[in-house]
Amino acid sequence: MKITLGTVTHPGGSRVNKTGSWRTASKPRFNHQACVACDVCALVCPEGCIFGTGQNTYYANEDYCKGCGICAEVCPVHDIEMIPEAGEDG
Amino acid sequence: MVKVEERDKFNDHLLASGHTACPGCGQSLAARLVLRAAGRNVMVVNSTGCLEVFSSKYPESAWEVPWIHSLFENTSAVAAGIEAALKITGQLDRVRVIAQGGDGSTADIGLGAISGMLERGHDVLYICYDNEAYMNTGIQRSGSTPYYARTTTSPPGKVSRGNWRPKKDVPQIALAHGIPYVAVASVGYPMDLDRKVRKALSIRGPKYVQIHVPCPLGWGTAPERTIDFARLAVLTGLYPLYEVENGELRALKIPKKVPVEEYLKEQVRFRHLFGKEDRKKEIAEIQGIADQNIEKFGLIVK
Ligand SMILES: Cc1ncc(C[n+]2csc(CCOP(=O)(O)OP(=O)(O)O)c2C)c(N)n1
Ligand SMILES: [Mg+2]
Description:
By secondary structure, chain A is of the alpha+beta class. In chain A, 11% of the residues lie in helices and 16% in strands.
């Protein structure tokens, strides 16, 4: 076995970890009704997995969303809701 | 190479998704915001701790910038060496150096190396992510743990009321080195944090920025309330946000004083202070710390 000094790896390789599988209870639903494109949900998402380009376009990439719920908590117009993981109908 | 999905083409985060921090982790958010402010032309040295562990699960890295981890205690020494090498090769104009670590690394174990780096005048920005305990090893108290907080090494019980020592004031220790910029920020105020990191990186010489980062697991708080608790810490006066640039102090004003109970009562680490009559004294003492901060930093406009 070749032993190297330390470990060197390529940038951003963590993207292979689909941390969305961590969600146990709920996930965010972006209602796209009252969004003012303030971008706060995207700014404060600890996973950096919320994106949008204007009013009512925001979404969370469910491959990475861990369901923490911060986005729904901070949305100033309450346009994001946490819904059961299994979807609307439970 | 990992393929970036088409629909996430706006994903230019320098701390990538797929890191393994707990849901609602304040530190992972703060680290992403720091890099957002710093941009690509940085080299980051990270001490041992949650941030290092959750961003570098072997063999992956969440970092899109050059990043190195060596030990728990020598972060600043490594950063100082990198800065010296960049300087001698004439590259310090293009690349900025950031050294970062948790509060345990900063307030306790790495403090000597930090002091040396600040004192020798290296052009490095040191960032402390203050979650107020040694979280990565299971919530032991650090020098930065606040009064009366429960940790696994300061458990409340018949005799103990939790952490028995006041929080170590590392920003003031940094200031005592006579460095050009010291700031205290919070993940609850992302734009203030952004401004302070940009400001710090625009200044030559040693800089120290400390960021308050709630830890849902260690504090016993709901993951969705990370931002709320960060803001409450500021609004109560318990975590004053200020900056000192070349000796001049500027503090973020708070609109009106929020009683410390509002901040303490929903955190498991302070739960032992509630429900029993005889714990009023401890809460009054914590209120005393907040009142002192409000006075000292002029947090409320009279
Ligand atoms: C010299 C040394 N002592 C102890 C440890 C074990 N250790 C690893 S991470 C850690 C806690 C880090 O705490 P902090 O710096 O506050 O960062 P956090 O995990 O809370 O973000 C400890 C004690 C170590 N790696 N090296
Ligand atoms: Mg810590």
